[in-house]
DNA sequence: TAACGATAGTGTATCGGTTACACTTTCGCA
DNA sequence: TGCGAAAGTGTAACCGATACACTATCGTTA
């Protein structure tokens, strides 16, 4: 593909990256995964996991790969969010970033530092540190998308572990919308949409009545309601 | 920015393009704007208007510019849709395409052939010719987005000319959802959402009672309902 | 071992927005 | 002046969403 190199002179190509906003719920809060940058620009600053697209790599794969390399996180729900391409968003060169957002249950996320990143850590969404590039905007766009999808999809079910109780599911929704939800109405809804089924087991968790345990009927698909 | 050229050898950059799906309603049908390609690949084939991103140009501006250059169409509602980056979507080199979709009233769209395109023409959405690249997929993604936004936004109002009657507005919705709509319910809804105001004029159009003429309260914004 | 604290689990009545539905008005034209 | 054709108008039924309070079952402790 020598033609590509020729074009660099006639028509310079921008760099293309993917950046991933990973959300999870842990410690009763919505949290976001960030990595600390090791090199310039924004050295030492927190940023989204992500990086340059390989020339023979799909966009989706690039997002999954960078996430895995930098944080050890794999196999989660990944959806393309939006593409950011302001001319001055990277001081080095022109960079087009295809942003993704990802959701996963807290338990599945085993962090480990990769080669590109000195460190990876979770931050509460409502207490983010200063971020590199335009990553603050990207995260807030992802959050808007997440919240708006709560209304008409089962996207929030991606935060659930393999098995769960209805109270745990309700708590996820309460954290996301930041408001209490009526227990009876919530259960009526959760059982009506046919996305969960009983495992038959009970879960004991303290000195009170044990809860029925459920699982998702289809872990790998989010459903659009109405 | 000589660094960019250096990178072409170490880390080859993909080309970045924008492609625009323009919808309008004319002749009682949803139609899409296509251009006929003058050079290879897909020479003579119909394709979406669009082209390569200038290195110092915003993505949005690129989409608007390519549209203007190739079709003479300007000043319409433009929204980023999705980014397509399959490895083999362009046989020449790796190309990442940031797709946009645009809506406009039929009257404002004066077509003229530009330099990149031999010809530009409208096609009914339900009778599209074979298309270059993955443009068929892009158009159908755009259509899905359009239809889903009908439910919760005033996006369809972008098809309206400066002034219009409620029957004309209703007709737009009927064409888009491809089903008849109850007149009284539609008018109740249209007047309740506070997006239109009477001009005070009447429009005579045939041998029957003249219709009240309306305009949008805010042409430049689409509103999200509920 | 009985009382208590804590979470699980359950049904009904009301409200509000959505839908279904038919006739009168006003024009142009024959 | 009567006829065809689109403009314009209100009410009742329906249905999904909401508000709301008590019993069940466990572990712990007095």
Automatic annotation (TrEMBL), chains A, B:
Domain Nudix hydrolase intervals: 11-147
Xref: InterPro entries: NUDIX_hydrolase-like_dom_sf (IPR015797), NUDIX_hydrolase_CS (IPR020084), NUDIX_hydrolase_dom (IPR000086), WH-like_DNA-bd_sf (IPR036388), WH_DNA-bd_sf (IPR036390), WHD_NrtR (IPR054105)
GO MF assignments: hydrolase activity
Cofactor: Mg(2+)
Ranges that cross the membrane: none
Keywords assigned by UniProt, alphabetized: Hydrolase
Keyword Hydrolase assigned: yes
Pfam families: NUDIX (PF00293), WHD_NrtR (PF21906)
Annotated PANTHER family: ADP-RIBOSE PYROPHOSPHATASE, SLR1690 PROTEIN
Protein name: NUDIX hydrolase
Organism the protein comes from: Thiohalocapsa marina
